[in-house]
């Protein structure tokens, strides 16, 4: 009999590799199965990280080529080197995936290359690229297989002219025109990248608003900012078909409410309508696990229906976010090790890494209204923040929602410079059930954009001082 | 493993404070050995070990507030081990109610507390690790405003100066404060006075005190005479032995007389039950026993509850006159005072007599002035002429 593992992790994305690290820290004998040539899953290879590399580079390119540098007194005529931009992205990604590899070694976790599938209780078969198979014996199996881009009927992704998020990270040229299907986080981030590099970007969205689920006031402000930047939106519009040839795509769309169809021609189309759980060939049937309509594996405190089989990340319920998977990974391994792992699902922040950024945590105003919870609102515009003003980055505002009676912070929604980093302050505060007054009475450094966060907290009880 | 839970604390007592742990975790303990002392509103309570063994864990630290059923600690049964068992043996712990004072409160809660003299250590925290949040502090403030508690008067915000010392009120002291204030706030309280010539009772006592003590094994004091006199007076004025319950008046046809006893920790009022059915010797014995145990902190909760009328004797400390506060929900309290030789006019002649002022504080909602005065005159008459008690006059 082969050596028995304490835990075998299938998938090396943020859920899988963080579980592996925690398992190593707690002295569990752990193996991680990954078929990709590199660790890190979607996030590191074709998700968060490469998109941020392009967002950063394209933001600077736009600043240099547009009005921003001129305003600052820097006259330059930048020239885009897309090959180099892609190369630096690839280099960073490689460094990061190597970093994860190092962390596996450091924590004595065995990486078994190949695709894993469950073969009954306590058994996982790994099939290598060369077709050979090995069977692992384990006390616990952790499914961390993540998700893949969801497809849209009538629009076949060929990753040449009709691309998914992976394809959109590696376009060989800057499109003259790009249609993004889906006004969610991924579509708006990647759409922003190519718009900054010169593409005419049109976003087609089925619903009547962008970033569904996010606080409506913030979403509206966000749409306004993006429109001002040159992105165009076709809301309440559905895509009924797409035809690609060697040079362009012809997309048919029609209003959701009914009406005449329309054809849009574009160099490229990005399908970004969401992601679906990835469980293909995972052998769930061998342990009696079924997936729901959306392909998700149900869980209760990370336990699946099968004893000894656990699940984290995009493949199960909750927001499909790397940091959510990471939190679950820690909790699930602690539970396996007999500790008290816990994830606070009410406090998983969400960030959109455009410029300005959008960041949100806790309940939206709509959710509070629906829940019948009495709340107070505090708001502060970045226009009134000295640092934002000095930097000419005044778009956006901070909104703080607090319980009308106890003053406990219930939700924070922001759009503005750097808010993706700054939201962490409110995450900590809310984890400690802080009142808005707690933030309002905490000294913040001047001059920083974080002062806007404090001023918004002051605004909850009506003593904003700088606006 | 045997759990030690907070025992039932008696009628109308819902919580206790852990006053002192006599044993430390890891100490060997014997069955029925006292391990921890609890302090309630009314008495101290001792909790004994449920088994021979080792005190495994303390779940409610000193100062923690516990309710009946709260886990205090646990004892591993078996011969006392030489060393404490390894910590690995501890089962998955149920989070004990964290002592609120051990984690800092939220800044906003601290502000609320500072502005309103709220004692945060007494507020149960709902935040992470039991931190007191602003919501907790506001809720405590609201609760306080609906209940005029003693803590409302307590000062907290001003700094402690040199040659001052700040001592946390014991639970007993807090309860005394709260109950006295409650009595003042709810009753229409006023006091009527009279004076009593102690000559006859003193003469009777002097005449029979040795015989009495020989026969009954207890000294004959004045207290038993006053208890008897009070019962006779209560029987004549039933309003004074009644209490208000909502919009009704409850008349009590039993005479359970509370006798205030000063102890080191504060005043307690144990009850002499069915005192009307007792003779003087039984009353003296009962009072003696209750007083001794009150000073030792050994009274049971049930011995402190259910009195229908109270007698307090400030005279033992030398008080000449006072206005006692009612022991709610009772409607009357008799204040006895020091006996002083004073010149008084008797049959047109000045005589020196041992005199005592009597005070009756009463709830004017139930007792009319006439009833109150009649009551006091009844007591006075019975003491001045004890034979009336014998003849039921």
Largest sheet of chain A: 7 strands, mixed
Query: Which radius of gyration of chain B do the C-alpha atoms yield?
Result: 26 Å
Considering the protein shown, what is the CATH homologous superfamily of the largest domain in chain A? FAD/NAD(P)-binding domain
Strand content range of chain A: 15-25%
**Average of per-residue pLDDT values of chain A:** 96
> Strand tally of chain B, please?
19
Helix share of residues of chain A? 25-40%
CATH hierarchy class name of the largest domain in chain A = Alpha Beta
What is the total number of structural domains of chain A? 3
Helix content of chain B: 25-40%
Note the main sheet of chain B.
7 strands, mixed
Oligomer: heterodimer
Report what the structure shows.
The complex is a heterodimer of chains A (467) and B (393). In chain A, 33% of the residues lie in helices and 25% in strands. With 467 residues, chain A is of the alpha/beta class. Chain A folds into three domains: 214 residues, FAD/NAD(P)-binding domain; 112 residues, 3-Layer(bba) Sandwich (FAD/NAD(P)-binding domain), CATH 3.50.50; 113 residues, FAD/NAD-linked reductase, C-terminal dimerisation domain (Enolase-like, domain 1, 2-Layer Sandwich), CATH 3.30.390. In chain A, the strands form five sheets. In chain A, strands 1, 2, 3, 4, 5, 6 and 17 form a seven-stranded mixed β-sheet that branches. In chain A, strands 8-15-9-10-11 form a five-stranded parallel β-sheet. In chain A, β1, α1 and β2 form a beta-alpha-beta unit. In chain A, α1 packs parallel to α5 and α3 runs parallel beside α7. The N and C termini of chain A lie far apart (71 Å). The model of chain A has no long low-confidence stretch (mean pLDDT 96). With 393 residues, chain B is α+β, with helices and mostly antiparallel strands. Chain B folds into two domains: 121 residues, RNA polymerase II/Efflux pump adaptor protein, barrel-sandwich hybrid domain (OB fold (Dihydrolipoamide Acetyltransferase, E2P), Beta Barrel); 208 residues, Chloramphenicol acetyltransferase-like domain (Chloramphenicol Acetyltransferase, 2-Layer Sandwich). Chain B is 27% helix and 25% strand. In chain B, the strands form five sheets. In chain B, strands 9, 12, 15, 16, 17, 18 and 19 form a seven-stranded mixed β-sheet that branches. Chain B has a four-stranded antiparallel β-sheet with strand order 1-8-6-3, with no helix packed on it. A four-stranded antiparallel β-sheet of chain B has the order 5-4-2-7, with no helix packed on it. Chain B is globular and about 80 Å long. At the A-B interface, loops of A face α1 and α2 of B.
């Amino acid at each position: 009999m082969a050596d028995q593992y304490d835990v075998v992790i299938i998938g090396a994305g943020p859920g899988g590799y963080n579980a592996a690290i925690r398992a190593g820290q707690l002295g569990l004998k752990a193996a991680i199965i990954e078929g990709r040539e590199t660790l890190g899953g979607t996030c590191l290879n074709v998700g968060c990280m490469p998109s941020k590399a392009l967002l950063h580079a394209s933001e600077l390119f736009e600043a240099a080529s547009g009005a921003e540098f001129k305003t600052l007194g820097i006259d330059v005529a930048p020239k885009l080197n897309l090959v180099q931009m892609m190369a630096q992205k690839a280099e960073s990604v490689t460094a990061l995936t190597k970093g994860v590899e190092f962390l596996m070694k450091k924590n004595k976790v065995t990486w078994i290359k190949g695709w894993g599938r469950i073969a009954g209780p306590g058994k996982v078969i790994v099939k290598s690229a060369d077709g050979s198979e090995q069977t692992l014996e384990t006390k616990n199996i952790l499914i961390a297989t993540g998700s893949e881009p969801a497809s849209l009927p009538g629009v076949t992704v060929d990753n040449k002219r009709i691309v998914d998020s992976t394809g959109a990270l590696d376009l060989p040229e800057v499109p003259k025109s790009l249609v993004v299907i889906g006004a969610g986080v991924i579509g708006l981030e990647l759409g922003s990248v190519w718009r900054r590099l010169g593409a005419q970007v049109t976003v087609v969205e089925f619903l009547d608003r962008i970033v569904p689920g996010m606080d409506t006031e913030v979403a509206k402000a966000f749409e306004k900012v993006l429109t001002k930047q040159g992105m165009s939106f076709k809301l309440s519009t559905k895509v009924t078909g797409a035809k690609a040839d060697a040079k362009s795509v012809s997309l048919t769309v029609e209003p959701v409410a009914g009406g005449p169809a329309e054809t849009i021609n574009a160099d490229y189309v990005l399908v970004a309508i969401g992601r679906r759980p990835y469980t293909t060939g995972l052998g769930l049937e061998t342990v009696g696990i079924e997936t729901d309509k959306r392909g998700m594996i149900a869980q209760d405190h990370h336990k699946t229906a099968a004893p000894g089989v656990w699940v984290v990340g995009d493949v199960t319920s909750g927001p499909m976010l790397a940091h959510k998977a990471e939190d679950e990974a820690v909790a699930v391994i602690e539970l396996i090790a007999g500790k008290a792992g816990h994830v606070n699902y009410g406090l998983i922040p969400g960030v959109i890494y455009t410029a300005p950024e959008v960041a949100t945590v806790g309940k939206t105003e709509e959710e509070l209204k629906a829940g019948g919870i009495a709340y107070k609102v505090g708001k502060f515009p970045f226009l009134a923040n000295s640092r934002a003003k000095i930097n000419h980055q005044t778009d956006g505002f901070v909104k703080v929602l607090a319980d009308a009676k106890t003053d406990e912070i219930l939700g924070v929604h922001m759009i503005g410079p750097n808010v993706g980093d700054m939201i962490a302050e409110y995450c900590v505060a809310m984890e400690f059930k802080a009142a808005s007054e707690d933030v309002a009475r905490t000294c913040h450094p001047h001059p920083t954009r974080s002062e806007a966060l404090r001023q918004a907290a002051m605004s909850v009880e009506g003593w904003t001082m700088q606006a | 493993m045997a759990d030690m839970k907070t025992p039932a604390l008696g009628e109308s007592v819902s919580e206790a404070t852990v006053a002192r742990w006599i044993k430390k975790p890891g100490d060997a303990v014997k069955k029925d050995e006292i391990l921890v002392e609890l302090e309630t509103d009314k008495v101290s309570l001792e909790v004994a070990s449920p088994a021979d063994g080792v005190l495994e864990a303390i779940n409610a630290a000193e100062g923690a507030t516990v309710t009946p059923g709260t886990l205090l600690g646990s004892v591993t049964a078996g011969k006392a081990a030489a060393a404490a068992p390894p910590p690995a043996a501890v089962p998955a712990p149920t989070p004990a109610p964290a002592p609120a004072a051990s984690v800092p409160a939220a800044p906003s809660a601290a502000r609320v507390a500072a502005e309103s003299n709220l004692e945060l250590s007494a507020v149960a925290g709902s935040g992470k690790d039991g931190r007191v949040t602003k919501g907790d502090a506001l809720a405590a403030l609201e609760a306080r405003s609906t209940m005029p508690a003693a803590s409302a008067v307590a000062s907290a915000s001003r700094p402690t100066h040199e040659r001052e010392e700040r001592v946390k009120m014991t639970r007993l002291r807090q309860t005394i404060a709260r109950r006295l204030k409650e009595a003042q706030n709810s009753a229409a309280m006023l006091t009527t006075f009279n004076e009593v010539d102690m000559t006859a009772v003193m003469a009777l006592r002097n005449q029979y005190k040795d015989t009495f003590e020989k026969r009954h094994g207890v000294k004959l004091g004045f207290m038993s005479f006053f208890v008897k006199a009070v019962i006779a007076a209560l029987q004549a004025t039933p309003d004074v032995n009644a209490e208000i319950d909502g919009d009704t008046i409850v008349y009590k046809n039993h005479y359970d007389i509370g006798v205030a006893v000063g102890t080191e920790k504060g005043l307690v009022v144990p009850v002499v039950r069915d005192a009307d059915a007792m003779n003087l010797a039984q009353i003296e014995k009962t009072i003696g026993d209750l007083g001794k145990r009150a000073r030792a902190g050994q009274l049971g909760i049930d011995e402190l509850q259910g009195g229908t009328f109270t007698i307090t004797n400030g005279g033992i400390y030398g008080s000449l006159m006072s206005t006692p506060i009612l022991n709610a929900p009772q409607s009357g309290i008799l204040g006895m005072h020091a006996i002083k030789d004073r010149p008084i006019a008797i049959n047109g002649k000045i005589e020196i007599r041992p005199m005592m002022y009597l005070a009756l504080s009463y709830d004017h909602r139930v007792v009319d002035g006439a009833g109150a005065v009649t009551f006091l005159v009844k007591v006075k008459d019975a003491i001045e002429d004890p034979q009336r008690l014998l003849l039921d006059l």
